[in-house]
Amino acid sequence: MEQGKRQLKVSSLLQSELASVFRDKFRDLTATNMVSITMVRVTADLSLARVYISVFGPSQSDSKESTVNRLRQAKPAIRGELGHRIRNQMRVVPDLEFYLDDSLDYAEHIEKLLKENAPS
Asked: Which residue from 82, 75, 68 is spatially nearest to 18, judged by alpha carbons?
């Protein structure tokens, strides 16, 4: 579904502000992993933001999932800090949902399969 101009602006704002929140205040939640916000999708009524996270560093997928789970558990604190940062731009801070974005892992897997099956 196509996002409107307002949704795209809010998504961009949330993505940049969440990145700085993770970098400045919640570095301990990401532990030894590097966390990147790949995409933020906002609903039409701006009440919910789906945040897609890529986790780099660990080789085990359970460690990636545990990083996302730590972010989910800290959602009230993250949302509060985000509210302080965007209070002049938005009246209401959207609810946050965190998802693991494994599209890079999937692309790497496909590339590996293509290399294995490539004619020599």
From this structure: 82
Query: Over the stretch 47-101, which tens digit does the pLDDT of each residue have?
Result: 999 999 988 875 565 578 888 888 999 999 999 999 999 989 988 999 999 999 8
Pairing of strands 48-56, 34-42: antiparallel
Decide: 57 and 32 in contact? Cβ < 8 Å: yes
How many angstroms from the chain centroid is the CA of residue 112? 25
C-alpha closest to that of 31 among 2, 92, 74, 1: 74
Domains: count for the chain: 1
CATH number where 102 lies: 3.30.300.20
H-state helical runs in 1-120: 5-24, 61-73, 75-86, 103-116
User: Contact 35/11 with Cβ under 8 angstroms?
Assistant: no
Measure the CA–CA gap between 22 and 34, rounded to whole angstroms.
Answer: 10
Decide: helix, strand or coil at residue 4.
coil
The range of the structural domain enclosing residue 85 comes to 5-116
